[in-house]
Amino acid sequence: MFDYETLKLIWWGLIGFLFIGFAITDGMDMGVGGLLPFVAKKDAESRVVINTVGAHWDGNQVWLITAGASLFAAWPLVYATAFSGFYFAMMLTLFSLFLRPLAFDYRSKIESVQWRSNWDKALFVGSMVPPLVFGVAFGNLLQGVPFGFDELMRVTYTGSFFGLFTPFTLLTGVVCVAMVLMHGSTWLVMRTDEDIAQRSVNIGRIVAIVLAITFALAGVLVWQSIDGYVVTSAVDTMGQSQPTSKEVIIVAGAWLHNFERYPLLWLIPVSGVILPLLVALLLNNKSNSVVPKVFAFIASSITIACVILTAGIAMFPFVMPSSSQPNHSLLMWDTVSSEGTLSLMLAVVVFFVPIILAYTLWCYKKMWRTVTLDEIEQNNHSAY
Amino acid sequence: MINETLVELSRWQFAITALFHFLFVPLTLGLTWILFIMESVYVMTGREIYRDMTKFWGKLFGINFAIGVATGLTMEFEFGTNWSYYSHYVGDVFGAPLAIEGLMAFFLESTFVGMFFLGWERLGKRQHLMATFLMALGTNLSAMWILIANGWMQNPIGSEFNYMTMRMELVSFSEIIFNPVAQVKFIHTVAAGYVAGAMFVLSISSYYLLKGRDIAFAKRSFSVAAGFGVAAIFSVILLGDESGYEAGEVQKVKLAAIEAEYHTEPAPAAFTLVGLPDDEAMETHYAVKIPYALGIIATRSLDEEVLGLRDLQKAHEPRIRNGMIAYEYLTKLRAGEETPENIAKFNETKQDLGYGLLLKRYTDNVVDATEEQIQKAVKDSTPAVAPLFWAFRIMVASGFIMLILFCLAFYFNARRQIEEKRWLLKGLLLALPLPWVAIETGWFVAEFGRQPWAISEVLPTFLSTSNLAVSDLVFSLIAFIVVYTILFIIEMYLMVKFARLGPSSLHTGRYHFEKAPELAAGLRSQNS
């Protein structure tokens, strides 16, 4: 159907698509969880906030699971290297992710104040730690990660957990957290009213501006002080997965090469700065019309796609550059599964994704309403 | 060199997290269908009590489901974090079913589980029933893809080693889907999940009947579970895993180990009921045997032999020697000496490369292994017998006790005498842990019996780990044990609380704890 080179390119796009899908859908739930302590002042308000995503967070989380499993299937060496290299960061993410399913389901099952406030804290931690770690991880990818392979392709990571945190990676962590908080607030503005909606507007505006500033600042750092990577040997884009047989050098400013080569691509990072400002303008609880609220949510979703794409394009064709052995860097050309697996998985994705989107949207449509304090009171024993 | 402590800790961590996750999965598999049955009756008859049953058992299902989701995330992470060489070596093949599981099954299950819990007011009756069905379907499809992946680990067909990429690559996906080991595993495992779901509802309903509370509710729940449970337990036992033990070398080894059959016996072999397996002497002491039984169970015939461990090990020795040759040519090819002759030599021997890799435990170069090291590797090529022997017997014994209990429950329920049979109700209540005992020991047999391999005859377990420090593993293992213990206590606290409360937890005003005592007593006599 497609040749190997095209398949590799498509899979670079698909992995990006799945991670963007995760950030837009489950990022929204994480944003809502992160906003919970700030927009809800009493128990009933917390329940309103939680019930705006109650029916959807689990389905949304599957984007993460599917993105991870697709990484395993399409880029096994990236999955193996990133997950084992970032061992403690991954464990931290994993243990935080435990908290959300339990908090959603268990919180309102018992009417104790202590019980509920503990689960609210759990939900906050479970919602904020993963985006922070993912942001820090992306920063590390841009900086390069210290790893290399032996002759049997066994990977050894030589960095440390605390080495993951540099001013730059902390900044990318903040970008990621601000992004999900902004997204969560646009969702709450659409789905709640009165006090909660107003608080969401107030916080949403602030985090949107923080996002625009930190994202621009990260861009400046990539331009001025983060070295990029360049492949100097010929890359066999049709070749088998052999990431150790090429030559790579570290070049200042190399992460801007793709933008310099195709200036139209600048639209993506520029949108990543402008759209959050648009979100800040659109966020508003005064008008009765839902239209600007929906536009704010859409602008926020596109922002997320632009931010992630910016990092992906800057590094292309690198996926995971090695700072200690640059020649062992992982490229989307030389770290992929076999042609057969990529074709098979492409067919599966093309078949199932439209179906998934269709029934997911149907569910959102069915559950669409403004969640109010009255509704929670009436469904005291069945709502989350 | 291989760090044995790291390997041991990695194995313990995977075993603990997988077995812990597997406490919750089977109940989800079974309860979703039971919920679908109850809700179908509600939609067909319009009788409120069946909606209440769906909602109440759904509440308990939700408590279990949440922790199942949380602990399931670990499994997704752990292949990469702790088994990175495994992930590289087989990701091309093994990753595909996991990704398909996400796309085909997980999305379906997780999207509609939200509709199941929170969609009662927002969906029409039929729409909600459909959501329940899709949730159950998603759950079961998910099990199917996981077991296809696991079946491939037991019997890795449809794939081939590529020396250039240094990994296994997909050749035929249909072979992997229709892998006979995966097929029987799927049926056996989901049916075991149905047994767990049925026993759960049966035991807790028995508790209400013994307490004399919410009789009408309990009796109807009991009926559904008894019928479903009888069908499930027969499926588990009749369609047991044994039929899968013929396909693939490791499955044969597993069978011999389960039976502690060190010597190949003339067909049809006897079944060892109990005994004391001794791996050093390779003998089973004090064996109590049932003539002919093993041969018939394992081969479904009277004249086929079941190979013993001594003969199986003997057959592994030449394969290890052959694997050394494969390794020699692999190193040459990896070093760039890709002559047609080297490629041909490698292709001749590569089916035994995995056996050669067994020597990596003793010598990094493999090709320079001494005679003594080869003999050690031969000894390593089969798993320890005693744990398998006993785990299997505990599983089978639990299965047969449950078979009897389900049959009695079904019989007396059909004759409408169940409330008088208090001994049976007590027995059913006490039997609540049995499905979990059987399921956990069964999973242990399947995975421990695969040793020393991660991928049967392809990749030894000790080679599959990540290059981590022992301290990394100590830290994460302790963290898992502590956090999982806390999660388990919270889950059990809620489960026991709501199970005791019963349908009164729905706050409909129709059930035991919501009524004035006299009224409750009056209704009780009216019901019975």
UniProtKB/TrEMBL annotation, chain A:
InterPro entries: Cyt-d_oxidase_su2. It is a multi-pass membrane protein. Its main location: membrane. Keywords: Cell membrane, Electron transport, Heme, Iron, Membrane, Metal-binding, Transmembrane, Transmembrane helix, Transport. Coiled coil: none annotated. It is found in: Cell membrane. Belongs to the cytochrome ubiquinol oxidase subunit 2 family. This is Cytochrome bd oxidase subunit II. It comes from Thalassotalea profundi.
Automatic annotation (TrEMBL), chain B:
It holds the Pfam family Cyt_bd_oxida_I. Its main location: membrane. It is found in: Cell inner membrane. It comes from the Bacteria. Keywords: Cell inner membrane, Cell membrane, Electron transport, Heme, Iron, Membrane, Metal-binding, Transmembrane, Transmembrane helix, Transport. The keyword Metal-binding applies. The chain crosses the membrane at residues 12-36, 56-74, 94-118, 130-153, 186-210, 222-240, 390-411, 423-446, 473-496. It is a multi-pass membrane protein. InterPro entries: Cyt-d_ubiquinol_oxidase_su_1. Belongs to the cytochrome ubiquinol oxidase subunit 1 family. This is Cytochrome bd oxidase subunit I. It comes from Thalassotalea profundi. The gene is cydA.
